[in-house]
Amino acid sequence: MRIAQAGATGFRMRHAVIAMAIGLALCSGPSRANAADESLQLKVGAAKADITPELREGHPVWMAGHELNRPAEGIHDPLFARALVLRDGQRSIALVAVDLIGVQHPLVRRVREQLPEFAHVLVASTHTHEGPDCVGIWGPAPDRSGVDPQYLEKVAQGIVRAVREAASRTAPAEAVYGTAEDVTLLADYRLPNVFDPVLRTVRFHRPGKRDETLAVLVQWNSHPIEPDKNRLITRDCYGYTVDRLEAEFAAPVVYFDGAIGGLMGTPNKRFQDAQGNWLAKDAFDLMRMYGHAVADLTIQALEGAKPVCMVPLVVSSREIALRLDNAGFRAARRAGVLPRPAFRWTGDVDRLGEPVAPDSDYQGPVALRSEVTYLRLGELHLAGIPGELYPELVYGEFQDPADPGADFPDAPLEPCVASLLPDDDKMLLIGLASDEVGYIVPKRQWDVKPPYAYGRDSPQYGERNSVGPETAALIMEALRRRVAEAQQASTASAK
Ligand SMILES: [Zn+2]
Fold first, then answer.
1. Buried b vs exposed e over 120-144: b needs ≥16 C-beta within 10 Å?
2. d(CA 388, ligand 1 centre) in Å
3. Measured in angstroms, how far is the CA atom of residue 14 from the centroid of ligand 1?
4. Ligand 1 center from residue 19 Cα (angstroms)
5. What's the domain count of the chain?
């Protein structure tokens, strides 16, 4: 099948030139701030806080991610909020990963109120399906929330504690950035088969001392293993990734998901037990082996990593409006199991209308409040996407032509992340960033009405956990604007 490359290379090149001019002005060495401006020295700190739920008699912990009514029966391994704080002498940014299915934007707003000294706090979820419900839709029944507000408060306080502790530990640092690919660690559980097989990683080390690691950031692009019969709380495979890398580098490690929608998961026949049997989803051995394979891929990426300047820190983030077309989400909101504010849809991704109460009789289209973030970390470009991005939207690898069974086969192709960022060779892509709005589906793939694509007799899975067919275009437009705003700000300050 032919793959269309959306997003013109010329667009990318134009931005690359601007970024390089600014970068040269501020990075005298490969990874050092200009000696003339001592204030632009990268500092890095990392810390973690335990956010494991308490299991008590009479207080069920509803596990998120599979069928309803799945109470936890024990703790396999603890859950954490892991924070990485970056400073450039002028601004501080916190990048936090939590071992949860997907923290919602209202919680991130609450966390930020307690950390006003930070130019940005990004809270992303590792998307474990083996932790407590933090959304609301996995309770004991469809009309009963699975969220324990006290537990959410524990998560919020854990994040704040981890960020403050990481901030108190910041030390001068230099950084190296590396990538490695292994498509055999991915399976696509939805046609067409498209992957983002690139693991991206940053290792921070003491200035001039390449082997003294201060922290490691890892970004990889797959759902965790998600054993669906499991009743034990666990970080899933990426817990093993983090543990192995922390042992390897004797430093804190923070793991982030990239583009995991569309639907990225573990291949069925990739790992075997000692008897040569293929390990199935419910085996904790598969979690361990997969997690270690991702750690090994990280080590491989870091072996070829190159110094990268990571100052100045530029933040371009704002709240956006996502038109809410999903009838199931709207019903869940009315029932109180999805307690998110909604607003009148204005037609503009950057503009929220009047608030609409859950019980309002307003009949017009409404929007969820979410956010898209672009962080320019010196020479690195970080896109923060508030959900599970389909991999098509990373490098613009769309099926062309679309399957005629799809609902909008002639819809325009959305611009992709790589074409929107100023330099796609130095990017980080964090999914479920400061929100989890579900799947972000290219409109040409949207398929809820018969006839269905690929000759199927039922719709594909994905749309029912998506805000709507316009979500991908809205998010990409928001990212385009955030990058443009950062460029304008940098150009103005360089004058
Ligand atoms: Zn998912």
1. bbbbbbbbbbbbbbbbbbbbeeeee
2. 6
3. 35
4. 34
5. 1
CA nearest 226: which of 438, 437, 430, 64? Answer: 64
Report the alpha-carbon distance of residue 219 to residue 166 in Å, rounded. Answer: 20
Say whether 464 sits in a helix, a strand or coil: helix
Each residue's pLDDT tens digit, 181-230: 999 999 999 999 999 999 999 999 999 999 999 999 999 999 999 998 99
Say how many Å lie between the CA of residue 249 and the centre of ligand 1.
30
Rounded to the nearest angstrom, the distance between the alpha carbon of 109 and the centre of ligand 1 is: 22
Q: CA-to-CA distance for 319 and 13, rounded, in angstroms? A: 28
> 484 C-alpha to center of ligand 1: Å?
30
The tokens for 304 are 């070829």
Instruction: Tell me which residues of the chain have a pLDDT lower than 50.
Output: 1-25, 28-36
Q: Could you tell me the distance, in angstroms and rounded to a whole number, from the CA of residue 245 to the centre of ligand 1? A: 24
Q: Which amino acid is at 380?
A: L
Ligand 1 centre distance from Cα of residue 283 (Å): 19
Query: Ion ligand 1 — residues with CB under 5 Å?
Result: 388
- Quick check: helix, strand or coil at residue 327? helix
Q: Where are the alpha helices (DSSP H) in 169-221?
A: none
Instruction: Provide the residue range defining the domain that includes 54.
Output: 1-495
Residue 487, amino acid: Q
| Buried b or exposed e, range 244-256, using 16+ CB within 10 angstroms | bbbebbebbbbbb
Which residues does 299 contact at the CB level (< 8 Å), separation at least 6?
A: 245, 248
> What is the rounded distance in angstroms from the CA atom of residue 45 to the CA atom of residue 164?
10
